[in-house]
Model the fold of this input.
Amino acid sequence: MNPYANGNEFKQYVDLAAGTYQFKVWGWTQFNEGKIDWYLDIESVGTPTNKIVSLQDWYTVSSTPNVVKITTGVILTISGRYVLTGKINGKNASSSDYAFFSTFYTFTRIGA
Done:
């Protein structure tokens, strides 16, 4: 996302079976990072409504690669194609910008 701005968002399609998942995000924490909300919705919904993570803060004083943030208990009752949306929602008071640098993210099924 360039330029960085509050409210920016990005989307990625993921095919997932019904079940319970752990959602992991790998990224860089830095002095200019924003906070991010994550949404996961079945493809037909169209707009992000099912928030799975609120205000995930990626700010730190010094740059640190490969930080992992984990959310457990993401429950899907329908198998299918989902839209994962990341949306910048503010920033830490000490952050200089609204950046977000992700290396990758995964969904790991942890239950039926």
